[in-house]
Amino acid sequence: MESNQHELYEYARNRINQKKRLFQHFIVLCIGSMFLFTANHLLNYHDETNWWIWIVVIWCCLFVFHVIKVLFTDSFMNKNWERAQIDKLMLKQSKKIEQLKNDLENSNPTK
Length: 111
Prior knowledge:
3 helices, transmembrane, 0% strand, transmembrane helix, membrane, mainly alpha, 111 residues, 2TM domain-containing protein, 85% helix
């Protein structure tokens, strides 16, 4: 495999693993929510309050953050974005270096 093809393959494999973990997180969230509901109501464990709702709400917030990370943040902040940012910063730095060289040459009188 060529280097470029290998990078594309690795990126695709990584994205598939991220989406797979997101789906697993959703399944665990559903099963965990049912367990917490059962523990609160059917097993009469502190059934005077609905404590399970607070845990599920916090867990759902974490799941939403996971969704945002996988589907939005990682989809546009990938290797291509990273390379573009590095190139942009390197170009900016090289311009500064050239400017400093020009300033140094102009400030030193030649003998």
